[in-house]
Structure prediction request, 182 residues.
Amino acid sequence: MRKSFLTKVAHAMLGSPNEVRTTSNDEGDKAYADFLKRAERTVKIVCGECDPRLFEQKSIIGAIENLLVHNGKMELIVGTLDNEESAEEVRARLHRNNKLLSEVLSKYQNQAYVYVASKRPDLHYTIVDGKHVLFEEPHEPYKRRETRARFDDEKLAKAWEQRFDEYLQAKTDQKKLTAVQV
Prediction:
């Protein structure tokens, strides 16, 4: 899969002592759960398909639920698999493939928001509390991926948080992003 300009920029910004690289395996999944456990206020996630191998991990669900129990907020942008799925089909796929995540999102629906992009986002990343960012290397749907996490870098995190908010606004205005209730 070819790297986009945004991916190259994101990875060029990394490379400090605050960076951790992992692959998406048991060790990488634990690292992602630990990353999410840092959340005290907000988590913003842009993902492709919301891979159940990751988002059905009890440790990851526990970290998300812990955030929401303590009145935190979560926003999730998920894409279509074939760029032709409707928002309702994506919602059904999320519910079918991600039962644990769906339960948590439904339970905290006033704090957890899911948006369906009209196509699979090129760049997948997670922002925690406006100071930690995790990027995924480009990958095919449901395939293992490498990640890079950057901790305690408010400048980088704020830049990507702004990009997230702009993406959310632009796509919503263009009707290319639909809010769904899981």
